[in-house]
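Quality-control log, excerpt.
Job 1 of 2 completed; input and output follow.
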Amino acid sequence: MGYTEFYNFLIPLYGLSLGMSAGAIGMLVGARSLLAVFLSIHVGVLMDRFGTRRVTLFFVWTAMALAPVFPLLPWFWPLLLLQIVNGGALQFAWAGSQTLISQLAEGEAEYLGRFSFFARIGTTVAPMIAGVAWDLGGAWPSYGLGVAWGVALTLVLLRAPEAPIAVGDGHGPGRHAGLRVVDVLPRLPDYVRCFALIAIPAVATTMAIIFLRTATNGVQSSLYVVYLKGVGLTGTSIGILFAAIEITSGLGSLFAGRAMRLGDPQRTMLSGTVLSILLICATPFTGGIFALLFVAQGLRGWLQGVVQPMMFSVQAKAVGPHRQGSVVGLRQTMNRLAAIVIPPAMGVIADHWGAGQSFVILGAILIVLCAPVTLITRRAARTVTQAEPTLSD
């Protein structure tokens, strides 16, 4: 995850150094998600078909090869195109990591929690390393370090085992079959089969929870910062609040295995998501008091840290060992959609009703959206109960 976060941190700094406007930099930042919206499902299917590690290595190498190109392109439109391709490669490499751990851990929340914990270390450390590299030498050393990071990630992936998958999935050649160009092109039937996974109640519930969870992150990355600056908090204070949610989220992920045993995991996930929505939308009611904001961020981070591995676990167990890439691709698509939709929606609401009121309005909308998720959760619980064998069986 540090590989992705490293590049994400650098692009605004590089844009500013070139004298680009805030709007142009915003477009560069948003461009990294474009390919992931349309191709995450396709890449997930390729992982199921040809092997997760193999596909992940391809995208790691792609990002490595493109890193030295950034300092060579000081113009907006070529840089935008480069950011689209490189951002897609980074997103797909991260998706490969999620798929590989889901396959190797067989969906066990305890191991997925450890995975999330180390991912949070990556998101915390990478910006600091990138910042030091930028301060010391600017674009060339920074993106050169990105190449070195890719080399390290390559060595780790080569040491990691490939998950055992079937030779062929019934819809195309298997991992050991000869690779043809037509095999790596997107296919409509693959998308149809992937979206059909939503018919599984457990998958439908977790996908809805993912959208709601990502929505709170969208609020934090947009209106939250604007509001805090408006009430007089310094950049350092805001940075501490952002670090708080990363640290507590990492700690919370270590409790995911225990949380799975508390009762119905889907109800636990939904409850944690509802509380996360309430905590972020209560921001205007803190009066800008740093201590209250810090506690709210810490609690929300811990809840999200617990919920994330549980979602991975429920999805992995619901679809079986040979559809892990597909369900991760579907999950990435939902994440990217929420990341694209929520910030502009928050901006429109804030323009009409003000920053403080927009927290309440969006919070009410998200809580209302939780109602159908509750119905799906109950349906999934009934399905599991009916499927359990009786003593006579």
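Job 2 of 2 completed; input and output follow.
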Amino acid sequence: MNRTDAWHLANEYVKSPSLLNHMRCVEIAMRAYARKLGQDEELWGVVGLLHDFDYERWPNAPDHPLQGEKILRERGYPEEVIYAIKSHADYLSDCPRVTPLPKGLYACDELCGFITAAALVRPNGITDMTASSVKKKMKSKGFAQNVSREDIDRGAVDFGVDLTEHIQFIIEALKPHAAELELERGLGGIAE
């Protein structure tokens, strides 16, 4: 298991640039947390990168992530990777999040999606974003309606991090990658 193989697998199954971008954002956030917590950065990064690789082909529960599980097993991925990826689906009761890796994935997944959405409506994208601006957007029920605020809150609590600090940590992790992630400038430049 390595990052290069994981990236090839992701690109084999995902054609949507926005989904690949989301998976990359989660990878970056997971790697940053692995460094902070003294965990295996490669393991955490691969989990973040591959967590939604089956979603485009099998978007409905429980196919996502169970179809991905089959593919990962066939390709020899470690059980720890498979379990963590399965655990990000709330509807799979046989995969409780009890260790830092699956808790980290759950905490980063929805929040990365929300931060990306918020960055895309800011004139300067993520470059001058703060946790307070993200929290302000979270209060707007009409903004990024498909992102569960409850999942974001629950993820931070379960991971044992303060929500404001968690948001800022992920923003700071993503900022150096703003150009790659196309988050340097917002699409609409809508002021907050």
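Post-run check on job 2. The chain has one domain: 3-177.
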